[in-house]
Specification:
The chain is mainly beta. It has one helix and twelve strands.
Length: 172
């Protein structure tokens, strides 16, 4: 996908979500859709910088929640960049204490946005090819379906569904 701005659109009940955005020339970010009111058992807080998630990309984790003001993303080293991120206004965060999840995996996957037709926008990205990883699952173990749309992408629409595994692992 070649672009300077792009949005992620998610439709359906989204209980846990995060993304990784990387550019071959080094513009890379980790972002956790966090519920700041949840305790760590319910996913409150961001993973440690040693956690690379499914993208295997360790580094600083930016945190956002619905209705948060726009902010400039920090890169993997924690340095503030000129890339801004806008989250949807309104909506709600959610968290669930799934005792089968632990550590950084739990912090990433046990909380996030809940429901709605949301648009998240990155602005100020350098032109180039990007890889975007999104994770969407209900941490309670129920099956929800989420559609992730990235405008201008080679495969613009992805449907994410399934249960949150109890093995602290990701599946495709």
């Amino acid at each position: 996908m070649n672009c300077t701005n792009f949005g992620i659109k998610s439709i359906a009940a989204l209980a846990a979500s995060s993304c990784y955005c990387g550019l071959a020339s080094g513009q890379s970010f980790n972002l956790d859709f966090d519920n700041p009111f949840a305790p760590p058992e319910g996913g409150g807080g961001v993973p440690s910088s040693s956690f690379g998630a499914a993208a295997n990309q360790p580094g600083f984790w930016n945190a956002t929640s619905g209705g948060a003001p726009d902010f400039f993303l920090r890169d993997l080293s924690g340095t503030t960049t000129s890339v801004s991120f806008a989250s949807p206004n309104g909506g709600s965060g959610t968290g669930f204490n799934n005792p089968n999840l632990s550590g950084d995996f739990r912090l990433l996957m046990s909380d996030g946005r809940d429901g709605g037709d949301d648009t998240w926008t990155f602005s100020g990205l350098a032109n180039g090819q990007y890889q975007l990883y999104s994770f969407a699952v209900s941490p309670s173990g129920t099956i929800n379906t989420t559609t992730v749309t990235v405008l201008g992408a080679t495969i613009p629409i992805q449907t994410v569904t399934g249960r949150c595994l109890s093995t602290n692992s990701y599946s495709e």
